[in-house]
Amino acid sequence: MELSDTYIQSFIQPRHELLLEMEAFAAAHHVPIMQLAGIDALNQLLRIQKPATILEIGTAIGYSAIRMAEALPTVEIVTIERDVERANRAKAYIARSVAAERITVIEGDALEVNDKAIDRAFDAVFIDAAKGQYQRFFEKYAPLVRSGGVLYIDNMYMHGLSDLDLKEVPRRKRTMIRNLKNFTDWILQHPDYTSAFLPVGDGLLLCLKR
After folding, report:
1. Which of 73, 76, 144, 208 has the greatest number of C-beta atoms within 10 Å?
2. Which residues participate in Mg(2+) binding (predicted)?
């Protein structure tokens, strides 16, 4: 039995003015940010895990970084964004947040960037960037995660496209969905991680590092 949208929405946590402003901007300018049910679930998982450090792949306008930092009042977050305009907007929003001193934005392609801010170990990694590159992101940044740490990966459902046969997927998105399916098969068989899928938001994958 599927849950109704009304029932799901009843669990959504209220947001303050800055977050509402960011949500409105994202909707008006077609900027992908996490669905509300997804970010609430992610934050609750993070509260349980209690990471001291988080690396985020895909800052966009800084929405999820701010939400995670507010959920964990002492966490330090490093977040990477390749789009210069979005990175600059993220910095502006973050500067207005209560978590400004705990979030570092790095501009650059996450597959190429080499910055001293990420030359360290992290308790958690949150991946929410180019969906067709998830395995490459994972292979690059998973070694930075401490044993017992978690990699959280959003948009695994891809608005229902991941559940379709490739022939049913729009042609322009087939490579991305094929890569996403291949990544799913790869990570579920990976000996170093225990993975689970949560059907919340647009689909959240949790990979616990052994």
Report:
1. 76
2. 128, 154-155
